[in-house]
Design goal:
The chain is of the alpha/beta class. The protein has 2 domains: 53 residues, no CATH class; 309 residues, Alpha-Beta Barrel (TIM Barrel), CATH 3.20.20.70. Helices cover 42% and strands 12% of the residues. The chain has a 4-stranded mixed sheet, covered by helices on one side. Helix 6 links the parallel strand 3 and strand 4. Helix 4 packs across helix 12, helix 5 runs parallel beside helix 6 and helix 12 packs parallel to helix 14. The longest helix is centred in the middle third of the chain and has 18 residues. The two termini are 31 Å apart.
């Protein structure tokens, strides 16, 4: 259905979004000024309508998910980020570092239908370069068929430092050991002001983007993220998205944008902050879809958004719910109240109730199972109600 452009522009004139409906309808790129206006406007419903128009043009009524496993192989970390509730030092209560054998055993006993393992963790300089090769090999030995999506740019930066080799040589060796693609975490928000305030030991925005560019040019796909709801300004959010969009123009290496709502509970410096509201979480999804016009997918990561918001986000720009997940620790340590795993039928229910059709994908968005032409019950009488 075409957008009722005149009516939408009349509405946009009164809500600080003038000109944006016309640009979206005509496929024109939004400016940084438009992005800032979208963050400032109270008309989240209009943003959702515009983002849904763009989402449907790109993906129709499909909502993607995958069957995946999370392995957070260590919480040892020396970055001491002020927003992180996951980090520990060796000897702290709850500190752990999985051996390659433990990684193998977790995957060997995990859901046999899983097509992806997502492996991210803290950064600890005493770990040897060989350790990272060994945990990749362990994952592939346990599950030769599984796609290993591992290591944020922060972890890759540390791995390159430990290897004392050029990036290209390290990527060759990681690929040979089993690395297939990389997630998009560790970027947080690119503001140098916020970095100095909350995570001064972590790599700069320039280094993150430099590594991502090199990794994309070397043939690896990654995701991209923004952690919002800390102390960043709206202008700093727009700058972050603009840098991601510019890099994507150059490399086309980002598959999915994932806005990450900050969970303040249990964090060292920011536990006093409120979590971004459901409306703000939906706004971030919609702006991501509208502004990052060159990134194919936008994910409503249900672990962080909550199930109800993730379901609503499918009609406000998101086309992906992530997956079944299992054993995720990073955001649950920060206070996430979402379940630690969903079954396939739970995901189908969320998608069908939103008016979309579930399509199971692999990490590279190749279709594993297409349910568009199958009868699927919206409700599973054997399942209990899903938490929100």
């Amino acid at each position: 259905m075409e957008l009722p452009l005149e009516a939408l522009e009349n509405r946009a004139q009164t809500t600080g979004l003038a000109g944006i409906p016309t640009k979206v309808a005509n496929g024109h790129r939004l400016s940084t000024g438009d992005a800032l206006a979208m963050y400032r406007s109270d008309d989240v419903a209009l943003l959702g309508l515009l983002a849904n128009h763009m989402r449907k043009a790109m993906h129709g009524d499909v909502a993607y998910y995958n069957v995946n496993i999370h392995v957070n192989y260590t919480n040892w970390c020396n970055q001491f980020c002020g927003f992180c509730a996951f980090q520990r030092r060796p000897g702290d209560d709850g500190a752990y570092c999985m051996t390659p054998e433990q990684v193998h055993d977790v995957l060997a006993s995990a859901n046999p239908e899983a097509t992806e393992v997502h492996m991210v963790a803290g950064v600890w300089p005493a770990l040897k370069y060989s350790y990272f090769l060994e945990i990749l090999r362990a994952a592939k030995t346990a599950r030769p068929d599984i796609h290993v999506k591992a290591f944020t740019m922060v972890e890759i930066d540390e791995i390159v430092r430990l290897a004392k080799k050029p990036l290209a040589e390290v990527l060759d060796e990681l690929r040979e050991a089993g690395l297939d693609s990389m997630p998009g975490g560790g970027a947080e928000v690119f503001s140098e002001r916020v970095r100095q305030q909350l995570y001064p030991r972590k790599m700069s925005a320039e280094r993150w983007l430099e590594l991502a560019r090199g990794i994309h040019k070397y043939g690896f796909k990654t995701n991209c993220t923004m952690l919002y709801g800390m102390t960043e300004t709206l202008e700093e959010r727009v700058d972050h998205l603009t840098r991601l969009r510019a890099l994507q123009d150059d490399t086309q290496g980002f598959q999915t944008y994932i806005p990450l709502a900050f969970h303040p509970a249990n964090t060292p410096k920011l536990s006093h902050l409120p979590m971004p509201s459901p409306l703000e979480r939906l706004r971030s999804i919609a702006i991501g879809r509208l502004y990052l016009d060159n990134v194919p997918h936008v994910k409503a990561y249900w672990i962080m958004t909550g199930l109800a918001v993730a379901q609503a986000a499918l009609s406000m720009g998101a086309d992906d719910l992530d997956g079944t997940v299992s054993q995720e620790k990073v955001y649950h340590d920060a206070g996430a109240q979402t379940p630690e795993i969903l079954r396939r039928q739970d995901i189908h229910r969320l998608i069908l109730e939103s008016g979309h059709v579930p399509v199971e994908r692999n990490t590279l968005y190749q279709v594993v199972r297409d349910f568009r032409h199958q009868e699927l019950p919206i409700k599973d009488a054997s399942s209990s109600a899903l938490p929100v």
